[in-house]
Design goal:
The protein contains seven helices and five strands; from the N terminus they run αβαββαββαααα. With 205 residues, it is an alpha+beta fold. A hairpin with a 2-residue loop joins β2 and β3.
């Protein structure tokens, strides 16, 4: 959803850099990036690459990260996507440790970036992103019981999800009352003074 040309332009205008995951909503871009990184090209020495292997929960996963400058035949994308410099791919090879004969599962994820990333920096960037996402989902589930919510009518689910995200971000910025997120929620709900402090901490008056 965030992989949009106008968002890329706004980020560059604000002197930032983007790293967007390319998915089906950008059909032509996805197709051409896929064509750029076929399986047989993953060991091409012209690409900057970085790999890491982790084991846990009965699985072994090797993640290969590759970055490349935009080739001449895809130069049109640099005009469509403001500041585009690198095409990136993350390939995961997952296998069950106990199932010795089973073929590893392969997953491709494609990205574009305006930053002059190395493969190692690219790997760190997407890992940090997933760390933040997973932590946010944990907060939403454990503190706000989002998974138990049964609101489904119209756009209600999306609206309530957005409000929960806002509430989590506001509560995490408040450091006067030091407690877990669930206790902060309860305290703010029962004490108007605490509620005012929480809102003042995020600039709401």
């Amino acid at each position: 959803m965030g992989c949009q040309k106008d968002i890329a332009e706004k980020i560059i205008y604000q002197k930032g850099d983007y790293l967007f995951s390319v998915k089906g909503n950008q059909g032509r871009l996805l197709h051409d990036v896929e064509e750029k990184f076929p399986l047989k090209e993953l060991n091409n020495p012209e690409y900057d690459s970085y790999s890491i292997t982790e084991e846990g929960h009965g699985r072994k996963e090797t993640r290969l990260h590759i970055v490349s400058y935009v080739p001449d035949y895809l130069i049109d994308f640099t005009f469509e996507w403001k500041g585009l410099k690198k095409l990136c791919v993350a390939v995961s090879f997952r296998e069950e440790i106990a199932a010795q004969m089973k073929e590893p599962e392969i997953c491709f994820r494609y990205y574009i970036s305006s930053a002059d990333l190395t493969a190692e920096k690219f790997a760190k960037a997407i890992r940090d992103h997933w760390h933040i996402e997973n932590r946010l989902h944990w907060y939403l589930d454990t503190a706000m019981n989002e998974d138990d919510c049964r609101i489904r009518r119209g756009n209600s689910a999306e609206l309530f999800s957005g409000m929960r995200h806002i509430a989590v971000n506001i509560l995490r910025q408040e450091h006067v009352f030091r407690a877990g997120l669930r206790r902060k929620m309860r305290k703010a709900a029962m004490d108007r003074g605490i509620m005012a402090t929480v809102l003042a901490g995020c600039g709401v008056s």
